[in-house]
Amino acid sequence: MNALALRRRPLAATSDGGAAPLRLGTGAKVALAVVALLALVALLAPVIAPYDPDKQDLLNIHAGPSADHLLGTDQLGRDILSRLIWGARPSLAGPLVVVLAATAVGVPLALAAGWWGGAVDTVVGRALDLLFAFPGILLAVLAVAMFGSGMVPCVIALAIAFVPLIARVTRSAVLGVRGAPYIAAAEVVGVPTARIWLRHLLPNVAPIVIAQATVAFGYALIDLAVLSFLGFGVQGTTPDWGMMVNAQQSIVQGHPDQAVWAGVLIVVAVSAVSYLGTHLTDRHHRDGRDA
Amino acid sequence: MTVNVERNLSPPGVDLGRFPSRGRARALALARHLGGLVALLLASSVVVFLSLQLAPGSPESVLFGQQQVPDAVREAVRARYHLDDPVPLQYLNWLAGVLQGDFGVSIAYQQPVSTRIGDAAATTVLLAGYALVLILLVGVGLGALAALRPGRVDGLVTLLTGVAVATPTFVAATLLLSYFAVELGWFPVYGPGTGLLDRLWHLTLPAVALTIWAASFVARVTRAAMREQLAGEHVETARARGLAERHVIRRHVFRNALVPITTVAGLQAAGLIVGTVVVDQIFQLGGLGQLLVTAVNQSDFPMVQAICLLLVCAFVLVNTGVDLLYRVLDPRLRAAAGARR
After folding, report:
1. Which of B42, B170, B319 is most worth mutating to test chain A (most A CB atoms within 10 A of its CB)?
2. Do B311 and B206 reside in the same domain of the chain?
3. ipTM higher than 0.90?
4. Å between A132 CA and nearest CA of chain B
5. Could you mention a single GO BP entry for this protein (chain B) (predicted)?
6. Do residues B334 and B22 lie in contact, with contact meaning Cβ atoms separated by under 8 Å?
7. Minimal Cα–Cα distance from B290 to chain A, Å?
8. Nearest to A23 by CA among A289, A286, A202, A199
9. Would the CB atoms of B311 and A138 count as touching at under 8 Å?
10. What angle do CA A6, A8, A10 make, to 5 degrees?
């Protein structure tokens, strides 16, 4: 959510033109607007949700859309719209934490591997290969088997599983910059390594890291939704989009409404985010070629 | 590979100095590849084993729950699951068993894990195979169609695959179930079915659910790869030489586009391994996925270990297989790998 504000800065700062503003195509602007809207809905859930998402009305179950309940009610008579609105919170905050944590771990690893090369690179590379052998969902299932169901083990496991996704791209970006004359110059002049990393390395790899993190957000959203769907993620009555898709009994009885709406929201969120991510990646490659 | 090495060694030709060394380098590269693969598989097995061994809550607490049990019984259970051995020894025992197809005894079912897994694995493999065939047919078919028919067909395919690529498998599966099984009643809602034909019929909706996302991915890559080839000079040359268009498409466009197509199809095949877990659970097919979810909920650690290990190994093997296939399809990579390593 707030990451959107954060994303803006490094992008503009590192465009080669110097003062170039954030240039986004029309499609990307729409995607950004969709993401912002969803984030806003999540933030303002207490204000805009018409009902308490947990309030049951057993006399009014599986009601169709009406003026009272715009999207109808579920198997316990809860307002579907309110549950979708509240569900935006775990559904979006979860992947955000996953991606931030994976980036916080993956970027330093990749910087070290790309900068020092040799043994460091080999060790980091092997560790990433091992992590890459585990599909994120499987790692999360293992974590759930260890610590029990819940959002926390799922998010931690996915964050670990997503480290290679971020680190691999970052490492190759670092390798690309490592040999640049201005880095060599800084080294020769005796600029401390930490300063070179912060001032020269990070700003240069930031755009591609952000693009990759955006793409990863989409994957994380799907993976967390799957885990909640399987009953391993969000627990109890807390609404979550993934959990709402899992309305097997209502579906079999011919009331797929909440599953359909939650599914649609997942599709919309994922398409917006991955469009944005792809756009940022493409633009980065284009800029790289121009320079 | 061995054939190549021998052939390269035998001719007392001009390049005597170069050929044998190249063959050896290639064999060496393959050996390193296999060594790395074995190391990766072993490391994964350690992770799977340790994660559950270090988990809070031992098997006996799962078995007995809160009830009071005589110490002798507790001892017997601990002995049965080798819980008093040092952890490295437990791991080696487990691994030795696994290599002989013995995954230990399921805590929940009190049966050997392997008897439970056998049938389930068959269902999962059948489902994944079915889905893979559909993915390749639909994905490559649609992609090629879009590449060769610019304009309206291309636009339609791009639009469809654009939406499908953002639809997670579990959402697709739920919607398919709701519409085609519940609403229209064309397909069964639950269960694996009996007999091959009935089984395939039961697996159709799940397989389609797995296909939607993956096939649109394959279609997009196929389209892009074929477009790139179509614009190439070699295609222009082939056409200028008067080769039949069919021949040009098959030998010059499709053959060259196969490398990226294989890569992405391989990735999808690996992705299917996790995908089946979800779909299996939704349609209650009784495959490995449903077994895994149940085992996790029951804290049936030997079962969870076995299924996780199988799935991770399958994932690693498919990925390695794709890597090798890739080299077969693109001779340039083979030469490069041989020269570098």
Report:
1. B170
2. yes
3. no
4. 9
5. transmembrane transport
6. no
7. 10
8. A286
9. yes
10. 85
Nearest to A212 by CA among A281, A269, A276, A125: A281
Q: Are residues B70 and B186 in the same domain?
A: no
The pLDDT value given to residue A5 = 41
pLDDT in tens, B173-215: 888 887 887 777 787 777 777 777 777 888 888 999 999 988 9
What does the pLDDT read at residue B11? 41
Residue B143 lies in a domain: yes
> Do B170 and A245 count as a contact with CB atoms less than 8 A apart?
yes
Nearest CA to B287 out of B295, B276, B297, B296 is that of B276
Interfacial residues of A (vs B; Cβ cutoff 8 Å) = 129-130, 133-135, 137-138, 141-147, 222, 225-226, 229-232, 242, 245-246, 248, 251-252, 254, 256, 259-260, 263, 266-268, 270-271, 274
Question: Domain span at residue B54?
Answer: 28-99
DSSP string, B256-310: HHHHHHHHHHHHHHHHHHHHHHHHHHHHT--SHHHHHHHHHHTT-HHHHHHHHHH
Nearest CA-CA partner of A124 in A135, A138, A137, A110: A110
Inter-residue contact B265 to B136 (CB < 8 Å): yes
Whether this prediction's pTM lies above 0.95 is answered by no
**Mean pLDDT, 10 residues at a time, over chain B (341 residues)?**
38 44 74 84 88 69 67 75 78 86 82 86 90 92 87 85 85 84 76 74 88 89 85 83 82 83 84 88 87 88 89 88 79 56 36
**A chain contacts of residue B316, beta-carbon cutoff 8 Å:** 133
Q: What is the CATH number of the domain that holds B131?
A: 1.10.3720.10
CATH of domain A74-290: 1.10.3720.10
For chains A and B, CB pairs below 8 A equal 115
Half-sphere exposure of B43 (CA within 13 A, CB side): 16
